[in-house]
C-alpha cells in the first residue's frame, strides 16, 4: 500500500495516525470539515480536502479524486457513517473503522473479539446523539463492517480502550497529570487497585496501519497497552515521568460521601475491571510502547499545553474535607 485517506486526521488519534503513516512513507490525504487547526498545513507530504463526512456527495467526490489504497475512518460515530464509508470505498485495499472497547456487551476478563458478545443496537440508538448509546452505535458499526466484508469489501475494525497521550482533547489523563503536578496528596477512590484498560495513542495509530496492511476483512482487533496498570500504578508512572513525589490517599464510599463526593466523580475510575485481550492484534506483529516511555511523552506534551483536565475536577475543596476526615481516623 502506498496511499492513505484519513477521515479526520487533525486532532488526536487521527493526528498520530497521519504521523505514523508518514513515517512509513505513505502518501496521505486528510478529509475533514476544517473546524480545527491542521497541524500538517505546512507539510507538503499531506494533502487536505475540506468536506463533511456526513455529506455523501462530498465523500464520493473525495474518493474519486484520491482513489486511496487504505482508508481510515476516525470519525464514524453512527452506523450510517460506516455503511456509507464501506460503500464509497468498496474498492479500497483496506477500510479500517475505529470502533471502541465499549462495543462489548458483557463484562468479562478479558474481553475477546471472537468470544465476548457485542452490545445490541436498536433503530433509535443507531441515531441517538447521547453518550449513553455510544457503545451501542459502535457495535452496530462493527456489524456493518462484517456485512461489508461478506460482500467483498476489505473492511476491518479496531477497538481501542481508553486512549491517552499527546494532544488528547478529552483531557481525561490530563486531570491526573495536573493533580500530580499541583498537589502533594491525591485522593483516589477505593483501594487504588481498579483497572480500566488504557491504550497509548501512538500504539493505536500503528495498530490501525498494521490492521490495514495485515488484517483480515470482517475481523475486529482490540488495542490497548500490553502491560496493564492499576490506578495507583498509573499515578506512580505519572509522578516518575514528572519528577514529582506524591502521597496517594485512598478513600472509601463513606469518606467520599462525607466530603460530598463519590467514586463516580473520578475520571478513569471503574469499579469492575475493563480489560481487552490484545493477543489477536499482537499476532499481526503489532507491539506496544513501554509504559514509561509513553507516559514520559504524555507528561512532556501536557506541560507544553494549556490542558488541565479541569472539566473532570471533582472539587479540591471537597477533597480537602475528605483528607481531613481520613487524617482523624
TrEMBL record:
The source's domain of life comes to Archaea
Instruction: Please give the name of this protein.
Output: NAD-dependent epimerase/dehydratase family protein
The biased composition feature labelled Basic and acidic residues covers: 107-117, 295-322
InterPro entries found in the cross-reference section: Epimerase_deHydtase, Lipid_A_modif_metabolic_enz, NAD(P)-bd_dom_sf
| Gene3D superfamilies in alphabetical order | NAD(P)-binding Rossmann-like Domain
| Residue stretches making up the NAD-dependent epimerase/dehydratase domain | 5-224
Segments for region (Disordered): 107-138, 295-329
Any one Pfam family here would be Epimerase
